[in-house]
Amino acid sequence: MKKLLMGLLMVALAFSLIGCAATGNSSKSKSALNQIKEKGVLKVGTEGTYAPYTYHDSKTNKLVGFDVDVIREVGKRMGVKVQFKESNWDSLFAGLNAKRFDTISNDVGVTPEREKKYDFSRVYSTSQSVIVTPKNNNKIKTLSDLKGVKVAQGLSSNYGEMTKKAGAVIVGQDELSKALKLVSQGRVEATVNDQGAVLQYFKETNDSNLKIAALVKSNAADIAFPVLKGSGLDKAFTKQLKAMKKDGTLKKISEKYFGKDISK
Known about the structure:
Blueprint: H1 2-29, H2 32-39, E1 41-46, E2 49-50, E3 54-56, E4 63-64, H3 66-78, E5 81-86, H4 89-97, E6 103-104, H5 112-117, E7 118-120, E8 125-134, E9 150-153, H6 158-165, E10 169-172, H7 176-184, E11 191-194, H8 195-205, E12 210-223, E13 226-228, H9 233-246, H10 249-258
Parallel strand pairs: 1-5, 1-6, 9-10
Antiparallel strand pairs: 2-3, 3-4, 7-13, 8-11, 8-12
Helix pairs in contact: 3-9
Main location: other
Signal peptide: 1-21
Domain Solute-binding protein family 3/N-terminal: 41-261
């Protein structure tokens, strides 16, 4: 009788374990892409303060920009609504890690360090770096001239990493407009950032205290959408981006914000 009861218990335990395994596998088999399609929403992290890539239109307050339009089109072609979650730059990757959003659309450069942690979509544009200084500063002409110099940079940005490697003294400031104001006010000697964003700031503010001191030719960055490793979203985004490049949509969006095609 004891053997019979023991046998029945072992059979019941086996079925219980099989059931648990099946449930676990079912949960894992539901990819990030399937979950997004079921909910009908793609959550995207962005700054909303980094013109012309992601910013609010001064007349309508609508979130607009090159990267905003690109990811909106990607979501549209995937058949889902894009929901933006705005945050400062230094917390964007933390938000992605915590799954508060599915990707980041914010002129994100592909770097070896980031590729170790994230999967990336195909590259959809390029970004050229420039060094901005006060107009009367004639000492800074190359990246190496930043050694020992106070520069305003986002601590987790590729520009922050680049200037730190050059030996600069980093003053943490992840919002470009505020970093440029620090340079203009003489509180720091320089900042390094994207050429398009800097030119947009010059156009909007007419700040005569600033100048582009140098172009960092060695730091042209490929721009793509980062996603969590193994999520498969990189492939889903890549499929749509390839189609957008082929049919001219990326070129059209690029020309809207830059007057030329910077897409890849």
